[in-house]
Amino acid sequence: MIPNFLSGKHALPTALTPSDQRRPLLRGLISKPELGPFVLLVLEILAFWAINPEFLSPMNISNMLAFTVELGLIALTMTLLMTSGEFDLSVGSVFGFAPVVMWTLYNSGTTSLEVAFLAALMAAGLIGLFSGLFVTRLKIPSFLVTLGMLLVVRGAALYVTNGFPQGTWSTGNHWVATALAGDFHVGSFRLYMSLVWFILAALTLTYVLTQTKFGNWVQATGGNPNAAKARGVNVDRTKVVLFVLSSMVAAFAGIISSIRTAAANPNSGAGYELEVIAMVVIGGTALAGGRGTILGTLIGVLILRVMRNGIVLIGVPGLAYSIFIGGIILGMMALHAGLERRHHAGA
After folding, report:
1. Is residue 261 part of a domain?
2. What is the DSSP letter of 56?
3. Which residues, in sequence order, are CB contacts of 216 under 8 Å at separation 6+?
4. Where residue 102 sits, what CATH number does that domain have?
5. Which tens digit of pLDDT belongs to each residue from 153-164?
6. What is this structure's pTM?
7. Are 146 and 89 in contact, with CB atoms under 8 Å apart?
8. Where are the transmembrane segments (predicted)?
9. Sign of the C-alpha dihedral computed for residues 167, 168, 171 and 175 taken in this order
10. Which among 21, 149, 178 is positioned nearest to 89, based on CA atoms?
């Protein structure tokens, strides 16, 4: 008896064609939140380079990286905080406040530079702790708590300095200043130690978010806090830790900036909080929480800093920067929403 293969009862297994095998890989790639920002970054670099070849010169890249990593440090920890469902509007004020604390203590002869540095970080940690406890214990939205903290911290910095930048100082070859913001050369590129700190922070936080129990807690806290509590996650403690970390890293970045520029300006960091949030959101982290990507944030940081540098280099007025940023945010949100719907439809 000849088996009836057409009936399907004894059908031979159908071999998958190469196109069938590639389809799941392609669908998975398209669903990645980092894909859209990466494509935009590449197009952005190519466009600026085509208009002005000096855009990719060693000097311009060196200058661009010096500013990028300081703001990027804040964006990295903001990624974790936003993944947990919260955000911090006070980071820009802390960025300006911490150097004021550090250099006021040091310039007045009150303490050594090492102690002043630690005191500034501790002050920032207390600011983050206060914000975190207000949000978790009193159940006040983080937008309102950190908006209030923004004003308090900025006001404190202005009061201490009477509204003026502190005078320049001489740290000589002090090891703290060298370790935080010393410069070195790699070929034709002049780089700063802040780039090393930025890379270390990115690698560490990527590991924390994707490979550790605490990273799972962060994502569960932002995704479904009630379910997270039911599974034993201390949601409130997780958020408080992230507020403290966000504030201390903002202070660290501000201190690095003050050493590099030799100035402790109480107004420095103004507006950074919104730019940092834009970097994180453009990179693919969900504004509502539950999904975060450090790699996406790195790309988002580069997108905005490349944009700021490029439009000035090609002759576009710097005041138009906000127009480009607003357009990028709207475009990336539309792209993320479209990819999300496509991913769920194909699931």
Report:
1. yes
2. G
3. none
4. 1.10.3470
5. 999 999 988 888
6. 0.87
7. yes
8. 35-52, 64-82, 115-135, 142-160, 189-209, 240-264, 276-304, 311-335
9. positive
10. 149
